[in-house]
Design brief:
By secondary structure, the protein is mainly beta. It has helices at about 5-10, 55-60; strands at about 10-20, 30-35, 40-45, 60-65, 70-75, 75-80, 80-85, 85, 95.
């Protein structure tokens, strides 16, 4: 079982998607996303969310992401944050987001 101290090591923040584009080089269908995290800056992420979302509808959307994992290389692209989601009944990724407007960079607790 994890402790509160271990949970607090994971830095989850709210970000606003600035843009998303197809990522055909990825092995599984994905988008390259550019996300504003306020004072933490602009970060990039690769996200396998193509089943339920189109790039044009992601711009402006708030998302929740882990911002303190090391970057991962995905088909030559540096994915700097892990955008969080949950599977729906068919296994498609549903993005996590705040229930109301929140400022980019706000910490999840």
């Amino acid at each position: 079982m994890a402790t509160i101290e271990e949970f607090e090591l994971i830095d989850m923040r709210v970000g606003r998607v600035l843009s998303a584009e197809a990522f055909p080089e990825a092995r599984k269908p994905a988008y390259k996303m550019t996300i504003d995290f306020g004072a933490l800056g602009i970060k990039k992420s690769s996200a396998q969310i193509t089943a339920l979302y189109r790039p044009e509808e992601l711009a402006g959307r708030l998302v929740v992401a882990v911002v303190n994992f090391p970057p991962r290389r995905v088909a030559g692209f540096s994915s700097e944050v892990l955008v969080l989601g949950v599977p729906d009944g068919e296994g498609r990724v549903v993005l996590l987001r705040p229930e109301r407007e929140a400022p980019p960079g706000a910490r999840v607790f």
